[in-house]
Structure formats: structure tokens, C-alpha cells
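REQUEST ID: PR-0412
SUBMITTED BY: lab tech R.K.
PRIORITY: routine
TASK: structure prediction, single protein chain
INPUT:
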Amino acid sequence: MMGVFQDLVAIQREIYLACAGRIGDFAKTGDWAFLAAYLPMGILFGAVHALTPRHSKAVLATYLTGSTASVPRGLAVSSVLSFVHVGCLF
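STATUS: complete
OUTPUT:
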């Protein structure tokens, strides 16, 4: 099981480095094509990152599955979780 997590971390690192390169290219040239290429990689980075341990996806999914929460409430709970997760990085 540890090998799977190490593979996820390695993939995440490669995506991060590629994203950093694109942002650097955009900063140097101001060419919006570099930034446009970065956005899908950022989504991929987030998806791989979410698969790593210590994310509360399972808790949130279990809560939303077992509750009578409506779609707007589910989206609100997910948004708050995302904000808190990203906000804790700063």
C-alpha cells in the first residue's frame, strides 16, 4: 500500500513541476497560451492531490450519503471543506 502512495506523491511532484514551469513561462513572456495550458494541469494536480492520505473526502462522502441534504447544501458543505483545505495552506 505504501508503494501506491509513493507513486501518487511522485505523480503529484511531476505535475507540480510542470505547472511551475508553465507559470514561469507565462511570467517571462506574458503569453496567455502558457497560462491556458496550466489550468488543465492544475485540475489534474488537484485530482491527484485529493487521492493522497489525510483528506476528508471519505468523511464528507459518508456524511452526504447518509443525510437528507439537498444538492445546494451538499455543494455548500463541499465548498466550505475546499475553502478550509486551501485556506489552511496559507
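NOTES: The chain has a mean pLDDT of 75.
REVIEWED BY: pending
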